[in-house]
Amino acid sequence: MIRELYPELAVPVGAYEKLVETVGLDFMLAVFHRQLEKMKSEESEKGN
Prior knowledge:
mainly alpha
């Protein structure tokens, strides 16, 4: 679903799983959330 809504955020599943193993799930979710907020901000700026 994320790939369909925000294809530029798509990360191969294997790469995501490896990052989660390496740095931890909480960190990955925080990074993803920051990227999502940045994209929403950019989209709203384009709309104005």
